[in-house]
Amino acid sequence: MENGKGQAPVSGTLGVHPPSTRTVAAPGRRVLPASPVSFRSLAAVLLLLLPACVPAAGVYKWRDADGRIHYGDQPPPGRPAQSVDLEAAPPPDTGAAQRQNKRRRLLDIYREDRERLQQQRTAEQQEREQRARYCARVRKTLQATRNATFLYEKTGDPDNPRIFSDAERKARTRALQEQVQKWCD
After folding, report:
1. Per-residue pLDDT tens for 34-79?
2. Which of residues 39 and 147 earns the better pLDDT score?
3. Strand partners, 61
4. CB 131 within 8 A of CB 138
5. SS (H, E, C) 12-37
6. What are the phi and psi torsion angles at 34 (to 5°)?
7. What mean pLDDT comes out for the span 141-161?
8. What is the C-alpha to C-alpha distance for residues 47 and 69, in angstroms, rounded to an integer?
9. Do 138 and 176 contact (CB within 8 A), yes or no?
């Protein structure tokens, strides 16, 4: 069943296009169905393929009249030039970021170790200096105790100090000798 225009009516919505998009084929030709590919996606694909179609430009090397070396994409007219073969750039290294992070963590650990060791050395140096000061002070006090005619301690009355007995003096000397052994050895 044909309507008067050479096309058969189709029931339902399958295969029916709005009148503005109907395509009539010339006799003997096939009509291709409308493609879901848009013009923009087709243009994008063509733009992506375009660089692959363009032949690679050559690089040339030559010397000028002053002997300086020049490079260019075209050889200079009237001068001999060498074609230079360029190697393709290596592919990007995907593990580089991981290696760099690992290297950074390792360097951080080394830095923390150096700081800890430096703090430890500083603390040890300060302890040695403090021991040396205490040693000098105790030796000086022991020498003064040995050389003194008598030992005394201050009391509330500045004019009347308490004088040590011989037993107290020996005990004081023994205590100072122990301090010398503790801080000076």
Report:
1. 555 566 666 666 666 655 544 456 788 888 888 888 888 888 888 7
2. 147
3. 71, 82
4. no
5. CCCCCCCHHHCCCCCCCCCCCCCCCC
6. -65, 135
7. 89
8. 36
9. yes
